[in-house]
């Protein structure tokens, strides 16, 4: 492989990896707040992309409005879902709440199929489809949008947790829900906020990546697993680790496809899952976190 | 009624229903549905053990079902191996694969198995699709021979019914004995408190792994029977959605009950058939099936998390709780 081809795979990898990073961060937020692995995470991404398609391409709303509307609506859906299906099972075993997210993911996917149909919808890039040439590799301007908005979102989440009282309260719940309750923090409200935030940034991922990958109702499983893979690589529960893990998954996947012999292109998704299985088998505590002894 | 007599009554009723159905009707459609309920029950019983007694979910059991189907398909079509032998080899291969998937993830505390099996299931389906002539690719592998018992070729649905349902009964008896055994007590201890179980020197990871492998073998055998029954396999019946449907069956019927998975398999298979029939009358109804299964799962967890087996016959086939003196 030539250097420019390598660079091309790397750039594409970082771009799709940015989307995976936001999904991974979404997983982490809900996991920290509730201990749930949210199997509907990928559906939030898909809904973000499809809603953005409707607002931007069908209704021709301005870019920023369409983006904000998609993010807010998906966050609202997550709040409703949490209220109706997750909170009533608060006292049930974590397993029941994980299984219910599987049911929710199926409902959301089925509904998306009913509303948007089975076709993949193409979305125009945010600011024209020009490309910059860097070292023989083409860098689409949309790639810059994806990376830039991802970085912005990650910084915003970081500041939210460090600087605002709500963010600190959410962190307190993640560290010890019982202790947080004792100092007067409403744990159910923080869980709800985690769902909203998690779904919102996943929807953002879906909207910014839509011009690169199309928006399609059935992409949620694959996006979800790749995001989860990033979260695991980062050490489940570690926000910054999840972001780096997500980018790493995108890069590895694209390099893997680039290095694989021709005729194996159909195996791209299999490759991503292989990374997941390898990480689970070899280093389930994550690549980016120190080995922890598991307490009882 | 004492617990043991209730349990016996459960087996007698089930046995009677199994014998009575083909006597009451020879309607080929109904028998075909009954065959599929049987196949789904075989898989759901294993998943029920995993979920109800090891506290773990698998989102890849359709892949084990597929491994069994493709193993017998490939062995009989390409290598002309005896179908019964192929079924056993398929189950053995599936067991090894399940061991390899389960071993690293079940050692961990938490629910990594669910994601690992989800990823595994999707990889397996991609391999079925991309396997070229070996697997028949997306169009599938035709010409799989029927099973035969001596001169009798098991060709019709009635034959398969008569083979599958006694197997389901054997599985339920096996589950009952398994849960009365040392392994069963260990699993119940794990389910109640993994930490307490560990402190009693129960190797929790090993026990969960044994149940996971057993459930994969059940699915593989069901897959082989499926392939020999319709003499053709393609990747469609082994998708992620099928794995989800299998989990829904277990939840609907009741995971921690003897007959729950069978009841769940019956209810879900019939609901599926109703949707298919209605879809024939009015096309858009077909697209609703996924949403309906999701809704069933969510509503069951919210309002009847113990499953239907506990709803209608609250004390029948009950495995835990008082009266459980084994």
Explain how this protein is built:
The complex is a heterodimer of chains A (296) and B (326). Chain A is mostly helical and 296 residues long. Chain A has one domain (3-294): ABC transporter involved in vitamin B12 uptake, BtuC, CATH 1.10.3470. Chain A has 11 helices and 2 strands. A two-stranded antiparallel sheet of chain A has the order 1-2. In chain A, a hairpin with a 2-residue loop joins strand 1 (131-134) and strand 2 (137-140). In chain A, helix 2 (41-58) runs antiparallel to helix 3, helix 9 (220-233) runs parallel beside helix 11 (268-282) and helix 10 (239-259) crosses helix 11 (268-282). The radius of gyration of chain A is 19 Å and the shape is globular. With 326 residues, chain B is mostly helical. Chain B has a single domain (3-318), classed as ABC transporter involved in vitamin B12 uptake, BtuC, CATH 1.10.3470. Helices cover 73% and strands 2% of the residues of chain B. Chain B is built from 14 helices and 4 strands. Chain B has helices spanning 3-24, 28-54, 61-79, 83-106, 112-130, 132-135, 157-180, 182-192, 194-199, 204-230, 240-253, 260-281, 289-303, 308-312; strands spanning 141-142, 148-149, 152-153, 232-233. In chain B, strands 1-4 form a two-stranded antiparallel sheet. A two-stranded antiparallel sheet of chain B has the order 2-3. Chain B is globular. Mean pLDDT of chain B is 88; it is low at 312-326.
